[in-house]
Write a structure and sequence with these properties.
two-stranded parallel ribbon, globular, DNA-binding, three-stranded antiparallel sheet, 5 helices, alpha+beta
Length: about 160
DNA sequence: TACCCATGCTGGT
DNA sequence: ACCAGCATGGGTA
C-alpha cells in the first residue's frame, strides 16, 4: 500500500487546511477560510509514515509557528515555477522576502515571481506566504484583497508571535 | 494620492 | 508569433 493516496482536512487558526498526498509525496495543500458550512472532515487513520509525519509537523507548526515544516512534495509546473518554488526553501518561519528581492536572486521580475507563487500547489509546505510586496502584504492564492490575503496575514502573524 | 510604464512569464488565439 | 493579463516596483507630479 505504499502508493495509497490519502487526504485530510484540518481546522487551523488560519482556516481549513486540506492536504492530499501518497506515501511518498505531498501532492496538494490548500488553505481556505473557515465557514459554518464547510466543517473539517474527521481524520482517517494514516496508511503510512508520510501521513503520520505530515500530521505531526503540522501539529507542531500550529502549536508554535517557529517550527519548520519540511516534507517531500511532488509538484508539476514550468521550469520557471519550479525555480521560484525551490527558492522559497531558504525563507525560515517568521522571515519574509519581497517579490523584488526574490526576483533579483533568480534574475527575473517581481511580477513574474508573483505569477509563479500564485500557482503554488502546496500552500504552507512551499511557504509562498512569506513573500510580500515592497509596500505591504501582497496577494495570496490569486486575491489581492479579501479573505485569502487575510489567511496570509494570519500565517505571518502566527509565525512571528512570541511563544 | 494617483497615474504610467518597464518587467518577465503565462495562456489563448 | 502576437497579445492581454498578472499575488510588482519604481518614477513622476
Amino acid at each position: 500500500m505504499k502508493f495509497a493516496p490519502w487526504a485530510f482536512s484540518l481546522a487551523t487558526p488560519c482556516g481549513v487546511l486540506r492536504v492530499e498526498g501518497n506515501c511518498y509525496f505531498i501532492l496538494s495543500a490548500t488553505l481556505t477560510p473557515l465557514t459554518d458550512e464547510q466543517q473539517p472532515d474527521s481524520l482517517p487513520a494514516g496508511p503510512c509514515e508520510l501521513y503520520n509525519e505530515t500530521r505531526k509537523q503540522l501539529d507542531a507548526y500550529f502549536n508554535d509557528g517557529r517550527n519548520r515544516i519540511d516534507l517531500p512534495v511532488m509538484t508539476s509546473g514550468s521550469d520557471f515555477q519550479q525555480r521560484v518554488w525551490t527558492a522559497l526553501e531558504k525563507i525560515l518561519p517568521g522571515q519574509t522576502m519581497t517579490y523584488g528581492q526574490l526576483a533579483r536572486e533568480i534574475n527575473s521580475s517581481a511580477q513574474a515571481v508573483g505569477n509563479a507563487l500564485r500557482e503554488n500547489p502546496v500552500a504552507l509546505i512551499i511557504p509562498c506566504h512569506r513573500v510580500v510586496a515592497a509596500n505591504g502584504l501582497g496577494g495570496y492564492a490569486g486575491e489581492t484583497e479579501g479573505a485569502l490575503p487575510k489567511i496570509k496575514q494570519c500565517l505571518l502573524a502566527h509565525e512571528s508571535r512570541q511563544h
